[in-house]
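Deliverable D5.2: sample structural annotation.
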Amino acid sequence: MAKLVVLSEGFAGRTHELKGDKITIGRLEDNTFQIPEPSVSSHHCEIYIRGQDIVVRDLQSTNGTFINGEPVTEAVLKPGQILRLGAVELRLEEDTAPTAVTAPAASTTAPAAPAPSPAPTSAPGAPPAPGAPPKKPLGQTSPIPRGVSLSELESGARPADLKKTGFAKKEDKTGLLFWAVFAVVGLIIIGLLVWGYLTIR
């Protein structure tokens, strides 16, 4: 709020806040702001608010009204300017109380943990990850190993056992064929020896 501060000796330090729409300044007690000094007229001037301005109007005083040394009959008084009534000087000031700055309250809420990243999903048609067992397409039939009898399948033989059984049968057939060839060759050799012996005689 704006206020008038008296600067002249004898009244120095006296202040008056500019409350209301209009105040009067003079030597008599019926003024809003009384300054009992001989050079001040009984009703020296009045101050009123016009919009955002503070206006001073001289009331036909004897010694005149001045703003920064210039005589005025009606003029705007700005903060920091000197108003002189007769021999008394006053200054217009504005209270600019510093605004307290409130520090923001410390947050007691812990920061939210980051959301876990979603597990990567394989795009359709992408090759399986290394080490992962291949998936069988739906509707595809697994072939049965050759050389496996129906009774072995019904008995619940595992694929590894079925493979071993097939290999064992193949080995038996190979052994029999070897011995048959060996016997035929032996008979041929014996026949040749007998034929040679008879021919020499």
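Annotation notes: Residues 137 and 148 are 25 Å apart (CA to CA). The radius of gyration is 62 Å.
The annotation will be released with the project's public dataset once the embargo ends.
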